[in-house]
C-alpha cells in the first residue's frame, strides 16, 4: 500500500493511500458548535454497501465509540468509554453511517475519525464552545477629579476561554484582548470624554457567536462639576429646611412668651381693681 500527502494549499493536506486500485481520502474537516447543541458528522455516503463496517473513533488514541456492521445488521455504541462522557449522546444513522452527538459539552472537543472497510477514512476536528456571558461595563474611577475631562471605564467578563474581548467606537475597533485555552476572567479599560456623543460598545466573541453591551455614558460618566453642584444643591436645601424649622420654633416660643406676658399683666390689673 502506498501513502502520500498531497498539499492542496498552505493549511490542507490530503492523505491519499492506494490499495488494489482503490483510493482513500482523509481530509480533516473543522466543525464548530455551541455547547448544548447537537452536531452531525456526515459520513459522506447516501447509503452503505452490504459488506460495509463503519467505525467511529475519537481522540489521539483513536478510542472506538460507535460501529455499524451492515452484514451482521448491528449498530453498537460504546458510550461507556472515556469516563462516560458520551453517555446517551451518540446516534448512528443506519443508512449513511453519519454520527450525531446530542447535548454537546466542551469535553467533546477533539478529532473524530470514521473508518470504512472500503479503505476510505474521513476525520472531523470538532470544537464545542461554551455559552458566552454578557460583558459588564463599570466605572473605573475611584474618585472624581475636577482636573480630568475623561471618564475611566472597564469592560469585564468571567470564566471564559477561546474568546476575544473588544471595545468599539461605532463600527471601528479601538482595542481588544484574547484568551485561548485557559478559563479566566478578562477586563479591558477605556477612557472617554465626559461630553462624548459617540456610540461605544463592548463585545465578546468566539468563532461562532458574540455578545454585546452598549455603553450608557450618561449613567456611568458624570462630570465632577455636576456632582459638586448636585451635592451643593442638596446641602443648600437641607440648610434652608433647618433654618425654616428653627425660625418656626423661635416664632412659636415668642408667641408663648407674649401670651404669658399678657396674662400676667391682666392678672395684676384685676388685683388692683379688687384692692
From TrEMBL:
It comes from the Eukaryota. PROSITE patterns: IG_LIKE (PS50835). The chain crosses the membrane at residues 237-259. Residues 135-218 form the Ig-like domain. Pfam families: V-set. Keywords: Membrane, Transmembrane, Transmembrane helix. This is CD48 antigen-like. It comes from Carassius auratus (Goldfish).
